[in-house]
Structure formats: structure tokens, C-alpha cells
Known about the structure:
Blueprint: H1 8-18, H2 21-26, H3 36-54, H4 58-64, E1 67-69, E2 74-76, H5 81-90, H6 112-122, H7 124-143, H8 146-158, E3 161-166, E4 182-185, E5 191-201, E6 210-217, E7 230-235, E8 237-239, E9 245-248, E10 251-256, E11 267-280, H9 286-322, H10 346-378, H11 382-418, H12 420-423, H13 429-437, H14 446-459, H15 464-479, H16 487-505, H17 510-534, H18 540-557, H19 559-569, H20 573-576
Parallel strand pairs: 3-6
Antiparallel strand pairs: 1-2, 4-5, 5-11, 6-7, 7-11, 8-9, 10-11
The structure holds flavin-adenine dinucleotide.
Flavin-adenine dinucleotide (FAD) binds near residues 173 and 448.
Amino acid sequence: MSTYRAPLADMRFVLFDLLKVEAQYARLPGGENATRDTVDAILDEAAKFCEQVLAPLNASGDEQGCTLDKATATVTTPKGFKEAYAQYIEGGWSSLNAPEQYGGQYLPDSLGAPLKEMLDSANLSWGNFPLLSHGASESLKHHGEEWQRQVFLKPIVEGRWTGTMCLTEPHCGSDLGLLRTRAEPNPDGTYRVSGTKIFITAGEHDLTENIVHLVLARLPDAPAGVKGISLFIVPKYKTDKSGKIGERNTVACASIEHKMGIKASVTCVMNFDNAEGYLIGQPNRGLMAMFTMMNTARLAVGIQGLGLIERAYQASLAYARERLQGRALTGPKFADKPADPLIVHPDIRRMLLTQKAFAEGGRALAYYAATLVDLVERSPDADERKRADELLSFLIPIVKALLTELANESTYHAVQIHGGHGYIHETGVEQFERDARITTIYEGTTGIQALDLLGRKIMQTQGVGLTHFLNEIGAFCKAHAGDAALGEFVGPVATAAKEWGELTQAVGQRAAYLFYSGYVTLAYFWARSVAAADASTQSDAFKQAKRHTARFYFARILPRAAAHAVTMRSGADNLLAMPDAMFG
Length: 584
Ligand SMILES: Cc1cc2nc3c(=O)[nH]c(=O)nc-3n(C[C@H](O)[C@H](O)[C@H](O)COP(=O)(O)OP(=O)(O)OC[C@H]3O[C@@H](n4cnc5c(N)ncnc54)[C@H](O)[C@@H]3O)c2cc1C
């Protein structure tokens, strides 16, 4: 069974050397407390919690799963989960970024990125309990009335209650316009919510005293489709406007799903039977309220991908150093041993380097996106907020889809590197592959991210986010144009960025466009990483490792973008021409 060690050195490199967060934090509200010393201490403490408390519960949680007692509609989480949650609250992790008036510490949002990566590397299932609270917090913060924030947001921030997001129904997944759950107004201003929601993460559990469901439903006079959806707060225990908890509400978990992975994260069918709720935000504007929090929720799932990429890499590397099989092609490297370790073999190195390039490049991309959240939420300058928002909205589908797809590739390699021992349960890596599979599905499938990127983020905005990003890449390439040591990276990035702009004009195939965009985006972050490492006080070995990995990325991964470009140029006819009946 592999152990987890938080990659603190690379996390610090990305935050301080690459993204220069110290300067950004110093000028943002709430950032004044995020000094280098504080951030270092936070990273160290988070690492301890994730390595020592959460990681040891990952395999046992997978084996035990959650159980539902149908008679009482209560869910029991695996052994140790409740205690770990209590420690999480005690450590102040639930309140890291929330505003102070709601009980938070108001530290920069981007500090949540390394914390989230560590939680997800250590125990993806456990991480899903606080994850949904974060989404609910964002909705309440941006769309709730003040009393709703006081009554519902505060206990979530304090960790005493958790949140859920109830969107999906049996006949309604990606296409939310189809949803049927109803909400009828009561004379006292509350609503009666009725309907069935499926696949609800953390819909029922034993970690907290109350659960706040955020539910999409239709008012009686609502127009059809997405323009007739409203958002409601439905607490597990009825809660009045003063915050007093009353009797059990008529919302209950009817069953829980048996899944391929994330078995310790409970996935519930939730029945709402005239449950008492409160409207949040404007009537029929519920989907808009959801979109507000989607940036952070999708970034969070992208970071789940990153966490798994890293965890799979760590397990693979440890095994490749220790397992002795065969001899290096160039002759024995460890002549005193019966065989050389796996790491000498080119094919194993290809897989390890792929994982490393995804982990470190993905970290740079994800944390960069998280620093944009800081600007959107806190910059006093309206122009800076607007630009950051446009750039972030554009990058989100790339972060979500690319990092989760690469997590599937990275965990696949982990099993392959472990050979037969990877396929059996004991080594633990097959769990990573099973856990990774959901990340490309929930919070919008990869296909839906591809539609979002091209439809909403390029077409609807005339490509404003892409233009910001290409300008940023252009400025980087210009600044390093004369730098011979960086020429091998800057040249290809400049060429790819030019092609990206041209391809956007003539796209036929959305998924190919998303992957093309993703691989070019990672190339940019790899070129930036080498430049930042060279300019930093990191050790020579660290700098050289960055350069070697970047060379691997540019030689062996970036060419995938070219294949996607060819695919795109082939148009959509080869996909659409065959009549449905001919599929057989
Ligand atoms: C473990 C787990 C946890 C979940 N947690 C939650 C939760 O907490 N709250 C919640 O509300 N939901 C949750 N979900 C639901 C999840 O978000 C949905 O499963 C997901 O959005 C996809 O919807 P669907 O399953 O109905 O698939 P469908 O929408 O039926 O899609 C099936 C396939 O068709 C593709 N597709 C669909 N529409 C289009 C289109 N217009 N163009 C091109 N391709 C398309 C999709 O990409 C996908 O490949 C969870 C699901 C699981 C399995």
C-alpha cells in the first residue's frame, strides 16, 4: 500500500516562484495575513493532516463504503471519517477563505488550491464531504439574503453543517432544462419542495448535525426550459429565520448508489415530499445562481484530477524504484542486484515522465486559475476584476476537462507500471483508477465542458478570454525572445499560440478543440515553469528536473495537439454523415 507525501517543494515553487503570490496577496483584502511564514505554516499543517489522518483512511473507506439504514434513512460513513471531519473543523480548514462576518478567516481563495489538492490526493472520497459545502457557501455568499447567510452560511463555514447541490433527476442530467422538481409558495413566504433528485453527493451522512440542500426546482408559473428554474434552500432539519432548529424536514435519503469508485463518498437518491424551503436569489434565475458557483466547483473537480495524478505518480515512482525486473538495455545498472529496478526501462520512464509532466504542469495551471479567483473576488480595481473573470471563465472548462482526463491517463499508467500487482487490490493503485473515473463525468462531463468552451466561452463572448490568454502568452514569449536557454520552449509555445488563434476561427469539432487548447495551455505553463525555475533560488537539481520534464512534455505530449488540430480540420462530416440506423 502506497503512502502519501504532500509535494510541498513543488507547491511552494508554483505559488512563490512561478505565480509570485506574495506580491498579489499583499495588495488584496484579506491577503495581508497571508505572509510567506503563514502560508508555509498552513501548507505544513495541511500536509500533516492529509498524510497522517486522511491518507490512512483511503483504502479502508473504499473497502467499507457507506451504509444506509433504510428504517431511519440514516447513513453511516466508514470508520474514522467522523473523527477526521472533527479534526478538520478543529484545524479551522472549513473556514479558511470565507468572509470574517460569517465566521471565516478570509485568507486568499487560492490558498484553498494546495489544501484541496492534498485532501484529494490523500482521500478523494472524504474530500467530497467538504467539497459540496464549498459550492453551497458560494451560492449563499453571492445570492443569499443576509438572514440566509447568517442562518445557513455561518454553520457551514464553521463546519457544523454541510451543504449539497441537488440538480440531477432520473431523466435530467446534462440537460437541466428538463427538470421537474416543483416548489409551491406558502402564505408565510416559505415553499413546499417536491420531487426526486438522484446522485446527490453527501445527501445524507453522520458527520454533522444538519445538512443544507440547495435544490433546483420549478415554481408553479415558471416558463419551460432553463429559464424557469429557481434555487431553494431545503435544510434536513427545519430551520427558522432566527436559526432555531426544529423538527425533521420531509426530505429523506431513499437509497444509496453502489459505485465503481469513490465508494466512501455517499451518493444518494433524495426524496423531497413537500419539504419546507426558502427561495434563494430571484425566481426563475436559479441557473444563473448555479453558474456563479460553477467556476469554483469545476475548478475544484479539476483539482481532484490533479490530486489523483500526483498520488498515482508517487505510487508509481516508489514502485519503479523498488521493483527489480530485467536489465537496462545499455547493460546492468545495479550489477550487485539480481536485476535492475523498473525505473531503468524506457517504457516505464515514458509513463513516469508523463505523470510528472501532468502533475507539475497541471499544478501550475490549476493554481494559476485559483489566483484568478482571488482577483475576481477581491481586487479593488473593476477592470482587473473583469479581465480576471473573463480569463477564469475561459480557462475553467480546460482545467476541469483536461486535468480529469489526464487523471484517468495517469492512474491507468500507475496500474500498468505495477503490472499484475497493480491490477490486484492490495497495492491500492487500482482504487486510484476507479476513483478517477467519475471526475470526467460529474460537475459537467468532458463533452459538456467542450460545448461550454466553444459555445459559451468563445462564441458568446467573441473569444474575449482566449484573447486575454493569448496576449499573456504573447507577452511571455516576447519577454523571453532573446533568452537562448529558453528558446527550445518559447519558440514552440509562440507557434502553437498563433495556430490556436487561427484554429479558433474555423472549428468543426468541439472535443478536439478542448484537448488542443489544453495541451497548448500546459505547454505554456511548462515554458513558464522552466523560466521561473531558472530565475529562482531553487537548487540546480530542481531546475534541471524542470527542464528535463519540460523537454519530455514538448517532445512527447505537445505533439498530441497537432493530432487534435488535424482532427478539427477534418470537419464534422465524418462524425455526422453516417445515418443513425447504420450503427447496426
Ligand atoms: C458519483 C456521482 C456523484 C454525483 N454528484 C452529484 C451531485 O452532488 N449533485 C447533482 O446534482 N448531480 C450529481 N451527479 C450527477 C452528475 O453531475 C451527472 O451524472 C452528469 O452531469 C451527467 O449527467 P447524466 O449522468 O444524466 O448523463 P447524460 O446527460 O445523459 O449524458 C450522457 C452522455 O451524453 C453526453 N451528452 C449529453 N448531452 C450532450 C450534448 N448536448 N452534446 C454532446 N454530448 C452530450 C454526455 O457528455 C455523456 O457522455 C453525480 C453523479 C455521480 C455518478
